[in-house]
Amino acid sequence: MKRFVSDTVGLYLDRRDTASIVKGCLSGRAGKDAVAKYEQALAGYIGTGYAVAVSSARCAFYLILGYMRTLCPGKYRPEIILSAYNFYAIPSIIEECGFVPRFIDADYRTLNLDHGVLEKNINENTAAVLATHAYGNPCDMGRIEEVAAEKGLFVIEDCAHALGAECGGRKVGSFGLGSFFSFGFSKLITTFQGGVLATNDRKLYEYAKAETGGMKRTSAFSVLKNTAVGLAAGLFTSPAVFSAFTFYPWYFLNRCIGRFVDRAVKGRTDDPGSSETFRRRITPFQALVGYMQLGKIDEIVRKRITYSRMLDAALAGAEGVSPAESVREEDCMNIYLYYAVKVKEKSKVRRELLDRGIDSREGYLKNCGFNEETGPVFENASRLEEEVIMLPNHSKYGEKDILDLTVRLTGFFGGPGR
Ligand SMILES: Cc1ncc(COP(=O)(O)O)c(C=O)c1O
Fold first, then answer.
1. Is the Cβ atom of 413 under 6 angstroms away from ligand 1?
2. Predicted TM-score (pTM) of this structure
């Protein structure tokens, strides 16, 4: 029986690419050129005037906020509106940069911020709206821009999951003051950790360039370690190796000590750390790795969309499982970095799926707006934290594999194929 892995490393280098990277690094000419070329290609792809490559999305967000702080000196405790269903490290970066996170609830259907409650949460201290395109599903940027323009707010986009996604015919990341993307291991493409700040604002670009110039470069040890981890994880989670080998120890681990693993992961996400750990410049090696993969993005995205629509069709009408919905089907393009569905009794469903050879992953956004005194004040974010899991849809699979997967999923959940 074929086993399906939910997540793999987003590395797409063939032998020619690898040879070029090695040659570039050995010749010593890679240096500054590689980073500049990579930044230019990224800006071209996203559709912005400028891009600044850094060590992580966190670092790029930190730079955008640092710049924004210089633009609102008069505001007392300026606030940034964001979805409570968010990545654990985001609120602490906002606080560290001198802003106050103002959470609003998520939309249970789309998993993005609830556009309906945005306006009533704006007050005289609101400085910006952070639009997080959860799992690659674009927010309604037209609506957000309209409200922001009317109230004089900045718009920032968290595109960590959304490279290639579109809204109204425009790539996400090209709206507002600035945006940030992640190239961590499981992202659409990876640079063995990395991120980029994209913007059309020349002053933000100059600020980010000047700031990154003063940062330390990611150390050779870190790059080596991340490369080794990325390559090993990529191998063990490749479809063939996972099915033939990795599944068995993974199954055993999940069956016997799954709860401890979940708790350890949760412990890590409870402590976001400080910016000291992520304020780094990218290395020319990472820039080369990123550059070599940029031309492949459209094909990767095409496959993810095709596979996710096959899953949509298979699960339509199934009971107890509902996929994330698009904000506007006609002109918003979800790139499905993850195929997110909501299920009740998440742990039980995941265990039973694993028994059928289907690995799933817990949704890794959580209810960041949870308040210890008042409880789960953000009802949808809290439900999403409880219910979201991610199913296999990645582009390293072929169409035939996904067909097999849909048959097995409909056998489990029910649906038109049963
Ligand atoms: C929504 C979101 N924003 C930001 C980040 C931070 O990205 P990085 O790990 O590159 O700093 C992540 C990481 O996965 C994320 O999921």
1. no
2. 0.96
